[in-house]
């Protein structure tokens, strides 16, 4: 059994950190586009995520304050009731709903950033630099598509 062989030399890889004869093909261009689209798509959800947190936090706060005021009102009338506590307890639901998208956004951002950093490190290691322009399209049904303009240049500067 010979193990993994280089597609260019037909021999076992004999390098430590980087290959001296690497040839980056169209798959590399597709990977640059894919990783950058994923990263930018996650960044575009930041405003929606913050809006979601604000909206549901206001609802939760309104339920807490409403429950407190109802409790104060009925207590001033000499009645002890669990209804205000129930209303305040219901306020925990929107509070949980408020922060679920934030958790998803932060997780997705961490994953996308790690992929982009890995790609950028690889590009720098082999002296490739790229500029990418991504145009996001959404049709009336919410389907997303992307137009990309990618410019890759090879320089002699490597890490």
Description:
By secondary structure, this protein is an alpha+beta fold. The chain contains 4 helices and 2 strands, in the order ααααββ. It has helices spanning 26-44, 46-76, 83-90, 92-125, and strands at residues 128-138, 144-154. Strand 1 and strand 2 (144-154) form a beta hairpin. Helix 2 packs antiparallel against helix 3 and helix 2 packs antiparallel against helix 4. The radius of gyration is 27 Å and the shape is elongated.
Q: Which helices and strands occur, and which strands form pairs?
A:
Elements lengths: L25 H19 L1 H31 L6 H8 L1 H34 L2 E11 L5 E11 L5
Antiparallel strand pairs: 1-2
Helix pairs in contact: 1-4, 2-3, 2-4
């Amino acid at each position: 059994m010979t193990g993994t062989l280089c597609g260019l030399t037909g021999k076992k890889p004999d390098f430590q950190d980087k290959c001296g004869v690497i040839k980056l093909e169209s798959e590399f261009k597709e990977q640059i586009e894919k990783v950058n689209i994923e990263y930018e798509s996650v960044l575009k959800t930041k405003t929606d995520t913050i809006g979601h947190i604000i909206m549901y936090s206001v609802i939760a706060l309104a339920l807490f304050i409403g429950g407190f005021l109802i409790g104060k009102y009925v207590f001033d009338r000499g009645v002890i009731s669990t209804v205000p506590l129930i209303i305040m307890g219901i306020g925990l639901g929107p509070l949980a709903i408020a922060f679920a998208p934030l958790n998803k956004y932060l997780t997705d951002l961490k994953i996308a950033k790690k992929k982009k950093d890995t790609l950028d490190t690889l590009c720098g290691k082999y002296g490739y630099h790229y500029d990418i322009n991504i145009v996001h399209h959404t049709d009336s049904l919410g389907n997303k598509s992307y137009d990309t303009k990618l410019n890759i240049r090879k320089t002699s500067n490597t890490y």
